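Input/output pair, single chain:
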Amino acid sequence: MFSDPGKVIEQLYVGEGMTVADFGAGIGFYALQLARRVGPYGRVFAIDVQPDSLRRIKNEATKSGMNQLEVIQGDLESYKGSGLVSASVDRIVIANVLFQADHPEMVVKEAKRILKHNGKIAVVEWVDSYGQIGPHKDHILSQEDARVIFEQNGFVLESFIDAGSHHYGLLYTHAPTPVPGEERNMAHRPEEEINPSMVIAPEELRNNL
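Output:
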């Protein structure tokens, strides 16, 4: 696979106790290392469409005593295909997945749905076919095209990831634009918006002492 999962995970800033989703987990290169990183109080969801791959991951996790790793069979190109609750994960890994998708934008939309505000995504994809060691050249998703998909969906590019010589890596942050007025609270409302009945006059305070 030529990329180093441990090195990518390090650049994703995965910490103990986090909830992480591995999109297109395959045989678990990332999922198993993520489970070790989040520790017993974190959670890792390995999501893939292939049940055989998921069984292999689960068996390996069970042998290693990693109960924090769960597997989900799901189609990430469908709405709510991950099976996870909206805004429920801190980090997502999408490695060598998008070039296989018929609709990579749907995978990105699903990632956006389940990622928490200010959550992060590591994206890793092949740079080239390399004589068909990697995907067929017609299936390569260029870095430029990947950036268009993510950035059109509101993700902010935080940095580039060192994903090895055969892959490019992108680190994205989910920072949705606040709805106008959503960030205001009672303590900062203009005077004209405050209901007079809510204001306690100094005389009332003295009478209640």
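Confidence is low (pLDDT under 50) at residues 181-209. The chain has six helices and seven strands.
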